[in-house]
């Protein structure tokens, strides 16, 4: 684990009730959850945050964007919650939520995985993913080295999925074919209680279709 505690994270809290922690994906920020939080904060303690190098959180130098750094940050955010909490993650945020659940199962009540994947078993697939991240990063105005936060170096999470026993909700945009296979794997491996496909939506389903996503989360939470 990282011993870096100097990075200041931008964390927002709204509402009162059972805690929900929202983690965004790569090159996004916590504002993408605004519509979902608006719909759920009436009876839930909603916590959203910016990953390091994103939004209003600090952007440390290269070398401080590993998975361990990101997971340490997520643990700091979850410290604001009443645990066990519901973790909601989009894309990279979903992957980090899965990883945190493997490390701290006692802190997690349930998972909501929005257009998320568990990583890759094969080294070739990881290399291809990482190359696509590098290609995208070269076209973006992002802090130097911050693209590493979205890269994969091992198969830890996907290989240990069967160790996760909390209830799971999977949400996917109808046009998000890249993550459809991951949704199928989750259905086979995790305790998926709810699987929702939002019509005419892509990868940023939570931002473009906030109300249907919030409704799906609320219906799932009612089953817990």
Structure summary:
The protein is of the alpha/beta class. 34% of the residues lie in helices and 19% in strands. It has a single domain (11-221), classed as Rossmann fold, CATH 3.40.50.1820.
Distance between the termini: 31 Å
Number of helices: 8
Which sequence of SSEs, written as H and E, runs from N to C?
EEHEHEHEHHEHEHH
Mean pLDDT: 96
Sheet having the most strands:
7 strands, mixed
Quickly name the level 1 CATH class. Answer: Alpha Beta
Overall 3D form: globular
Class from secondary-structure proportions: alpha/beta
Q: If classified by CATH, what would the architecture be?
A: 3-Layer(aba) Sandwich
Q: Could you say what the CATH topology is called?
A: Rossmann fold
Write down the Rg: 16 Å
How much of the sequence lies in strands comes to 15-25%
Can you tell me the number of structural domains?
1
Order of strands across the main sheet: 1-3-2-4-5-6-7
Number of strands: 7
Poorly predicted segments: none
- Give the helix level as a range of percent: 25-40%
CATH superfamily: Alpha/Beta hydrolase fold, catalytic domain
């Amino acid at each position: 684990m990282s011993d870096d505690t100097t990075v200041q994270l931008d964390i927002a809290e709204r509402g009162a009730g059972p805690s929900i922690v929202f983690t965004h994906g790569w090159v996004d920020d916590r504002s993408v959850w605004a519509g979902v939080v608006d719909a759920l904060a009436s009876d839930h303690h909603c916590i959203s945050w910016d990953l390091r190098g994103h939004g209003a959180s600090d952007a440390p130098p290269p070398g401080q964007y590993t998975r361990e750094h990101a997971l340490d940050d997520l643990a700091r955010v979850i410290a604001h919650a009443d645990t066990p909490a519901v973790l909601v993650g989009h894309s990279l945020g979903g992957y980090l939520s899965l990883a945190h659940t493997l490390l701290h199962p006692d802190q997690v009540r349930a998972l909501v995985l929005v257009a998320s994947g568990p990583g890759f078993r094969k080294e070739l697939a990881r290399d291809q993913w990482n190359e696509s991240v590098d290609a995208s990063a070269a076209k973006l105005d992002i802090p130097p080295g911050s693209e590493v936060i979205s890269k994969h170096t091992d198969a830890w999470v996907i290989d240990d999925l069967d160790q996760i026993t909390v209830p799971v909700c999977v949400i996917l945009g109808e046009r998000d074919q890249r993550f459809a296979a991951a949704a199928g794997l989750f259905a086979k491996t995790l305790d998926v209680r709810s699987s929702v496909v939002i019509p005419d939506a892509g990868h940023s389903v939570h931002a473009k279709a906030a109300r249907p996503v919030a409704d799906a989360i609320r219906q799932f939470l009612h089953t817990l």
